[in-house]
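To: structure subgroup
Subject: Chain for Friday's discussion

All,

I'm putting the inputs and outputs inline so they're searchable in the archive.
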Amino acid sequence: MTLAPPAPAPAPASCLEARILALLLPYHRTAGPAAPDPARHARQLQRIRRFTDAGEPVVLTLPGFPCKSPNPAKVLGRLPDEGERLSLAFLDGLCARIGELYAPGARMVICSDGHIFADSIGVSDEDVDAYGDELRALIRREGLRHLDTFDLRDVHGDLGHDAKRRLVTDAYAPSVEELRAKVRSDEETARLYRGITRFLVEDTAHHTGSRSALQRACRARAYEVIARSQAWGALVADRHPDAVRLSIHPQPVGGEKFGIRLLECADVWATPWHTAVLKDAAGRARLMRRADAERLGRLVLRDGRPSHFEATT
């Protein structure tokens, strides 16, 4: 079960772009107080208006769905499971609801970024390919007709993964020195740096050294992951210059990107590829670490593979 669609935030009936944006606002992922007034999100309104003025489908881009965490205490395996299935259905449903307001409808481009930083997070390129292939198969099987996918294979074809990463980072990535300066001067960047560092520490399953050594290594790697992630975002923006830019990370109100929640979770940073799904007796889904979900529920298989947990109490 995806997030239940609450009533949209109030917006002037004559303002089509505000009514479209109001469908997204209940799911805004932000580190601060929410802002349900569409007028507080001028950049998103402007981008939506470009499509509605032209009578074209609204295009939204969402970098994410890279690969599963390599830590088996957090996830059920290396392939998409119920978390991805529910999240993709939720995104497709948002686009369908836009189509109920606006006849040309909307399309969501899932910009899978796993190959950009696979070697920095301890995941093989083969696992990233397997995850991406299954993600596209899942979209086909579920009939999610408002979703498209985009990854490095659409950019640099059959080049080797290292060569693809190098081309993108050389063209778009900020330097580590630039990022260090921004972490010191900008609270949003500092929050992202802390969040990525935490993920890297949690995703390291077989570290044999001290905790302090692991944290130092992950702090250094966090700059590389952020630089590559920003490079991917810049490439996506080049390929889809007019799109409404979404993010799976918390974003400030009025920012260039609009952070979006995919499923219910206690952690504002949680994603389906870093967690497992636990469903309660009513079918409501929450994201949490696999180890925690395992203590609270029983494992459910789908097509012979681990899918999610169902609460036993």
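Points worth raising on Friday:
The radius of gyration is 19 Å.
Confidence is low (pLDDT under 50) at residues 7-14.

D.
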